[in-house]
Amino acid sequence: MTEGSPRQETGRRWWQHLWVWLAGLAAAIISGVVVALVAGWFEPDPPLPPRLTNAEYIRVFSGEGELQSPYRRAKTFEAGECPNRSILSSDPEALRCHVRNTILDPCWLGTRTAVCISAPWAHDATVIDQATLTAGPQPSQDPEAPPWALEIRDPTHDATLRCRAVPGAQQTVAGQRINWACDDEDGRPAGSGVGSPSRSDEKPWTVLYNPEGSAEVRRTDVLTVWY
Fold it and tell me: Please, are residues 153 and 161 in contact by the beta-carbon 8 Å criterion?
């Protein structure tokens, strides 16, 4: 057998080294791609920017003046009087109505029928079939009026809280008045909304929140306000 020349041996060794180097490079590239893909699969998506605060008004009547979904007649009074504007809702159309010794606030008046609800998310309505309006002229909307109810983020847990106005509230925390009582998603007391919301057109409103049984006050995002 004829042995190869030194030049041929050198050439073979060069090609062997080249193939080893190329194989190593290919393995490194494949490994990097796999790691990147796996990291992409298991790495959580970046959080979405918080949405702006929604402002809602209660609309209990359809365009035809009928009680509309999702509200439903749960209790009925034959007659009553609405002598005042609501002290809970800042909606200029909202009323405070009396039926014998019962005060209903807020209520909205149709042709003659008044519909009253206890919270924006409470769909069981109290209906006064013959409601007499004796309240004064309807005021204009006050853009700085405090909302009747809030939906906020719980700053201590990943949860949404619903808060409604506390009529005649006098309690304070951290030197500011408690204005809303907040419940968790199961309807259990969770804390209080304190002071007035900080408003913005470019980012969510914020409000101070005091957890139940705590003296701590933290600022949190307001998702929705109802008037």
Answer: yes
